[in-house]
Design goal:
Elements lengths: L2 H19 L3 E6 L1 H5 L3 H13 L3 E6 L2 H10 L5 E3 L2 E3 L5 H19 L15 E2 L4 E5 L2 E2 L2 E2 L3 E7 L1 H9 L3 E4 L2 E3 L5 E4 L1 H12 L3 E6 L13 E2 L14 H10 L4 E6 L5 H7 L6 E3 L5 E5 L5 H13 L8 H7 L3 E6 L2 E11 L2 E9 L8 H15 L4 E6 L3 H5 L4 E2 L7 H4 L9 E6 L2
Parallel strand pairs: 1-2, 1-13, 2-10, 5-10, 9-12, 13-15, 14-16, 20-21
Antiparallel strand pairs: 3-4, 6-9, 7-8, 11-12, 15-16, 17-18, 18-19, 19-20, 21-23, 22-23
Helix pairs in contact: 4-5, 7-8
């Protein structure tokens, strides 16, 4: 396949993600190091592209290195205690200058519209303001942090009004008190509080190299139970991702600000390029175990009684439980699906979600997981036999096929009395 065809295929494959993200609220966090990096110009272009695709964007920026340079230029220094800057009244004006200058620079970059730039024709409206109410961090272990603050309240009503009008919000790490004081807040905490207050679909942290394992490979997905907050700094993006998810943010992502196109690859491809952190700690996707059989039977029994699913005995389920993947929520199996390999293709079977939990796209999460498992087994396609949910599968990339398209070993098992529809989806 030549480059042109690859680009066309990628663009076509991104269509479901474009539709899924349109109208959703994303909070993006860029620290000062990301803004200093040469790849920032590409990130700006990607932000404008997201806006053009109908995503509602709130961009929160940091300014640590810019503040350091401003202090150094004026012969001033600041103390750090537990990696938190002590913002004294004498350095506060310099902090304001650094943050204000950086905010203007970002606004200017987002306003570009030269004919040879990615932003041409976007006419992006960027709005900043006093959306963050702050309070002092106070005195901790005898240390007075002065004008270093934390978020007290986010003006969600005003932010939503601006987002609904088509504007992009740019929020600086400065908050204001009812008494008119200015506080220097940590930008990662600001981003987390904004995302939680808005119940954002995504909170995206741009980090220096993403999250990697001991071998240096990117960790593509984490469950909240895998994150030990006690081992992390207070303002660590990983720790705050867990906090945000527990407070209602659907997904958090850690992606590299050094990699060109990392945001687009993470948001518009199946495999992504960074680390995705799931929403609920007490909800996880995992392989089924022998002690899950009773719960699976309880889950699928109503559909078997309606004739939607083929009846399975306990003995059969016990022998086939290794084929099942489940979603467990607070100790309860709320969704399940099975993958059966046949030659080069895999059968998706028994995709069921409890009626009370048919929200938050659990069926899609399971489908995505089954696709990943099928690819890992070297299968080239996924097929399904269904009598009632044809449209759901068609909407997710499956197409109608004939019986002859199934692997021979599965053709011989086809039940003509059920007259199930046959659908198939190639695995990329």
């Amino acid at each position: 396949m030549n480059d042109t065809h690859q680009h066309v295929k990628w663009f076509r494959d991104s269509s479901p993600y474009i539709n899924a993200h349109r109208g959703k609220t994303f909070v993006l966090h860029l620290d000062g190091e990301a803004i200093d990096h040469p790849n920032f110009s590409n990130i700006i272009g990607d932000i404008v592209l997201l806006h053009s695709l109908g995503v509602k964007l709130v961009v929160v920026h940091g300014a640590a290195p810019q503040i350091e340079r401003q202090l150094a230029a004026n012969g001033a220094t600041s103390e750090f205690v537990n990696k938190v800057r002590v913002t004294t009244p004498d350095i506060l004006p310099l902090v304001q200058q650094a943050v204000g200058t950086l905010r203007s620079d970002i606004e200017a970059r987002l306003s570009m519209g030269l004919i040879n730039s990615p932003q041409h024709g976007a006419e992006m409206l960027v709005i900043s303001g006093n959306f963050i109410r702050a309070k002092p961090l106070g005195v901790i272990d005898g240390i007075d942090y002065h004008n270093t603050g934390i978020v007290r309240k986010v003006n969600t009503k005003a932010i939503r009004q601006q987002l609904d009008s088509g504007a992009t919000l740019l929020i600086s790490p400065l908050g204001y008190s009812l008494s008119g004081e200015i506080f220097n807040a940590n930008s990662t905490q600001v981003a987390t509080e904004v995302a939680a207050a808005l119940m954002a679909e995504k909170l995206i942290f741009f980090t220096d190299q993403g999250l990697r394992d001991a071998e240096g490979s990117v960790i593509s997905e984490l469950q909240l139970d895998d994150i030990d907050e006690s081992l992390l700094d207070t303002y660590s993006p990983l720790r705050l991702s867990k906090v945000a998810c527990l407070r209602g943010v659907a997904r958090c992502h850690l992606i590299s600000y050094t990699e060109d196109g990392a945001a687009l690859e993470e948001l518009f491809t199946r495999d992504g390029t960074g680390t995705q952190i799931s929403r609920v700690s007490y909800e996880q996707i995992r392989p089924a175990r022998a002690n899950d059989v009773a719960a699976i039977i309880e889950l699928i029994a109503p559909l078997e009684e309606q004739g939607i699913l083929v009846r399975r005995s306990r003995e059969l389920l016990e022998s086939e439980v290794d084929h099942f993947t489940v979603i467990e929520r607070d100790g309860m199996i709320v969704s399940c699906a099975a993958l059966y390999p046949f030659e080069t293709k895999g059968e998706l079977a028994c995709l069921v979600t409890h009626p009370e939990y048919r929200d938050n796209d659990r069926g899609e999460l399971l489908l995505e997981k089954i696709q990943q498992l099928a690819k890992a087994q070297g299968l080239t396609a996924l097929f399904v036999l269904t009598t009632h949910t044809t449209h759901w599968f068609v909407e997710r990339g499956f197409r109608s096929v004939n019986l002859q398209d199934l692997p021979p070993s599965r053709q011989s098992l086809y039940n003509y009395q059920r007259n199930s529809k046959l659908l198939e989806k190639p695995l990329p």
